[in-house]
Amino acid sequence: VVFRGRLTTLYLANLHLRTATRILLRLTRFKATRFDQIHQKLSGFPWELYLFKEQPWDIIVTTRRSRLYHREAIAEQVQRSIRERLGDTGVPGDEPHDESQHLQVRFEADHAPLSLDSSGVALYNRGLKTQGAHAPLRETLAAAVLTWAGYQPGRPLVDPMCGAGTFSLEAAGMALGIPPGMRRTFAFAGWPAFRPKHWDHLRRKARPADAPPLQARIFASDRDTAVCRALGAEIKRNGLSHVISVACRDVKTLKPADLLNADQPGLVVLNPPYGLRLGSRTEAYQAIAALGRHLRTRWRGWRVAVILPQRSLARHFGRPLTLRPLRHGGLDLTLMIGQLR
Length: 341
Description:
By secondary structure, the chain is of the alpha/beta class. 30% of the residues lie in helices and 21% in strands. The longest helix has 19 residues, at 71-89.
């Protein structure tokens, strides 16, 4: 997705976007068919606006259908233009900037946009979780699933195979209006053009207004006691205990009557295990069929969103639901969305 705006727009995009992995600032675009042309085209670029003299940086190069395909040689020419410009006009930092800045050069058909990564660590790192889980779901994908599934903060959300609690934590942020980038840092804070006071003002404006504590409408559970204990600690550390409740329960026995605040149908989100943990193909079919029977029997009238490792598993779940393709960690997955009847 490409969009235009001022530097403030870039700050706000990093702060508020829930499904983007990173925000790149397009610096310039040039054409080159010889290596020396790269240096010529970039020699006058004002690198001092984005990089300090002493700051480390790296350059990621990709090429496709271009006469210049030697990535190290391309990066060397870009490095040369940066060093020469900063040597003459570069700004020394008031304090050391140890974190590297990342530049991207993408050659295609001899044309190359050059971009600077404004995010740094990928945006799915919200700064909320300190504990991990086996094959954790990325927060950006969780936010997309919740949006596609029609999550409404006023209705109950049940995350009965919660693992690290990605669905529950992301839903809590959406319900409370907490921007996903509120509790983390960004690469743009290491640019000479960065204005800390302006950034602090934007963050203050983005903070949710004070409101009376909400009753827990998000219910997370897992059959692993250690997982539930760790998630409970994360929820408490982030001040979300009034929104998310955690219990150690097996999804196969859980029903709406077990929840304190499930007085109306809501949304059930599930991310079942993949690969070896799901067993053989026959065992996987049987597990999904059993899950479908349980949900249709106990959770009738609720909406459901289920992530499947294989599209073929969807027909074993039962009543046909809407299918969407997903990609996560190099895996092709399928999302089922619909109402349980």
